[in-house]
Amino acid sequence: MEVSPMSEENTTTLFGREFGEFSSRTTAVVAAIVALAATFAAGIAFPDSIAGTLTDILTSEGTLSSALRLSVPIALAALGGIFAEKSGVINIGLEGLLIISAFTAIYVTDITGGVWIGFVGGVVASVLLALLFAIVVIEFRADQIIAGLAVWLIALGLAPFASQVIYGRPNSPSVDTPGTIAIPVLSDIPFFGALFDASPTVYLMFAAVALSWYVLNRTTFGRWVRASGENPKALDTAGVDVSRIRYAAVLLSGVLAGMGGAALSLDLGQFTGNGPTMVNGKGFIAIVAYLFGNYNPVGAFFSTLLFAGLDAMQTVLQLQGIGLPRQLIRIIPFVMVIVVLAFVGRTRIPAAAGEHYDTGDDNR
Amino acid sequence: MSVGDRARDALARLVDASAAERILISIASLVLAIAVGTVLILVAGRMTTCAPSSAVYYFNVGFCYDPVLVFDRLFLGALGDPLRGGWSPDGQFAITMRETTLLIFTGLSVAMAFRAGIFNIGTQGQMVVGGLAAALGTLWASPFLSGVTGTLVLVPFGILVGAVFGGLYGAIPGLLKAYAEANEVITTIMLNFIATGVTLYLVSDVFKDPNSPANQTVPLPDYAQFPALLFGARQDFSLYALFFGVVTLFALYYVLEHTSFGYDVRTSGIQPEAAEYGGVDAAKTIVSSFALSGALGGVAGALYVTMVIGKFQSGVPAYGFDGITVSILAGNNPLGVGFAALLFGVLKSGTTAVQFATDVPPQLVGVLRGLIILFVAMPEFFRLIGRRLVKPTDQSKTIATDGGESNE
């Protein structure tokens, strides 16, 4: 994808500093669309070229459906991250929440036999870990970044540890999956039919994106969350307990990330705990996704879809054995994240994010 | 507020504690992590199954795993059983020293960046890049030399190459942060994945050893590897490397505390606005701190190649991530890194001893690592306990103003 550094600088100088961020993001999106259109044009004109193959992959229903499937854990974790960070708590431990819920969901499904009981089990595990994080950060004023890192490391050790204790190896046995739900008629539409023939977790993701947007922008609770991150003192003055809002937001991030982790492992029916586990950086990509989406749930969803689409494409490219070696194709999403950050680097994060809020009435 | 500000906040909070208090907090964190680990071992021991004869009984309840044995192996086993007699200079103790040496460098790498207010999670990637560069550089130069001269030239050359490439790779997130304001926590994590992917490709294709099924380079000739001194030959440990590590500890301490570059780094770490007002070039300081941090990570990679495995192989162990733990535990003080590296050297080497003597999954040590970080990050918790235990007296707050070195 061609994103010219020139155009970015031009817009910055043309529209001034404050429009710079916005226009560089717009430039990136426009450039992506232009590159995509160019690929399609070349692909239709020369069906046998690499562009032709790329066009085939991009327009295949399989790519869309696997992109959606790959989006689920990232998008849900990103929604969780939005709530936490909007309230002023940077939750860098999303990766850990995904890991712990991915394992617990499989374990509970394995012992109870119920996929949805397992799903709830995964969410509960994630919420408990998020609660620990919240207590450490809000009650004991731990540094949010370091505590988040600790949450990741604890889960990274705990899930394979538990798997080893229970199953004797870091990978769990296979369990039932939620399967897929196909909506009649709609699922027969070419390409977009993939939207209507998917795992229930995909529908859950759509619902969560819409609901998160609504809660954050249209409800009192959402307003409190935003105020708690931007101007906690004002919120405090208005008589709302800042700590309580932050607790709620962090626990909500636990619920959402837990849904993501449980969906990740249950859709595959197995937990793999080798090396960086099956989560493998999805929690960190979620953070990039919501930064790129500028804390807007819908924006975060579309940037997730962009990363997941790249990921889905690289899988197909690998299978087709195109020119580039496997190991290099695999790093494309990570390179993309860096390129995106280099152009959209400046994201305005909530003013009070990362800071502990002191009510001032307990002079210890 | 940028991530830099947050990292600075973290720094300020760690600095807030006086040196003595910080050591106390570190020890208390370790003890608390062991206590939680004990509970975890007991609970896990109830969840797994074993023969009644191999179980251990506490309060008439049988457990499959014995925490006492686990921690005995973890600590005493790592030291080569000094209390049992028959201590060998070439046993587990040498492995502990080897791990400590590598952790000194990755710990210093993270500490260096942290002192500049930068959170470098990319030490792992910088180590991987430095390691591959050191292996390829040494392989390229080795036909020109041999014997003792070969060792005298090639080993320092390998370290230099590792430092240069690690430094260059570290400069990337530095440039991105300084000029594009890209969040370094995220860029360094991404660069770790990229380093692993690219080096895997290189050693599985371009630079692959044709005589080996593994993804690795051709082995370095013996004279291009770190020579053993006094002990540790069998365990791939060289006392020279440890000396080098200790010298680097003091060198970095000196650079940070007694040079103008160190002053710039520390002031931008604590008060970036003040630093810039005082004439410090913020962008330049960020890039050079990141490059120096990456160079230290690169040296760790070079040591891993020339001292430990004698070639570059895909799947470098996570010394870089352990470096974060080491640095946080040390309060980002270069001299403290020495002690913290020794502790984590023991934990890493002890993991093998635990695996050898018990059925407890080795991932336990990963959990302990996370718990230690979690506890170290919350000094407030220990102060609260401290206040409960000791009746509060005069609360005179000590704030260090010289960038982390409190004179208490």
Do you know the CATH architecture of the domain at 86-363 in chain B? Orthogonal Bundle
CATH class of the domain at 86-363 in chain B: Mainly Alpha
Number of helices of chain B: 15
Order of helices and strands of chain B: HHEEHHHHHHHHHHHHH
The mean pLDDT of chain B is 84
Low-confidence stretches of chain B: 394-408
Spatial order of strands in the largest sheet of chain A: 1-2
How many E strands of chain A?
2
Termini separation of chain B comes to 31 Å
Mean pLDDT of chain A: 82
Q: What strand order characterises the main sheet of chain B?
A: 1-2
Largest sheet of chain A: 2 strands, antiparallel
Oligomeric state of the chains in view: heterodimer
* SSE-based structural type of chain A: mainly alpha
Radius of gyration of chain B: 22 Å
Poorly predicted runs of 5 or more residues of chain A: 1-22
**Total beta-strand segments of chain B:** 2
Helix content percent band of chain A: over 70%
Question: Concise description?
Answer:
The complex is a heterodimer of chains A (about 375) and B (about 400). Helix content of chain A is about 70%, strand content about 0%.
What does this structure look like?
The complex is a heterodimer of chains A (364) and B (408). Chain A has 364 residues and is an all-alpha fold. Chain A has 15 helices and two strands. The model of chain A is unreliable at 1-22 (pLDDT under 50). The N and C termini of chain A lie far apart (55 Å). In chain A, strands 1-2 form a two-stranded antiparallel ribbon. Chain A has a domain at 73-301. Chain B has 408 residues and is mainly alpha-helical. Chain B has 15 helices and two strands. Chain B has a two-stranded antiparallel ribbon with strand order 1-2. In chain B, helix 4 (92-115) runs antiparallel to helix 13 (334-357) and helix 5 (123-141) crosses helix 11 (282-309). The longest helix of chain B has 34 residues, at 147-180. Classes of the chains: A mainly alpha (364), B mainly alpha (408). Chains A and B meet through helix 7, helix 12, helix 14 and helix 15 of A and helix 1, helix 2, helix 7, helix 12 and helix 14 of B. Chain B: The chain crosses the membrane at residues 23-44, 102-121, 127-145, 152-172, 184-203, 237-256, 286-309, 321-344.
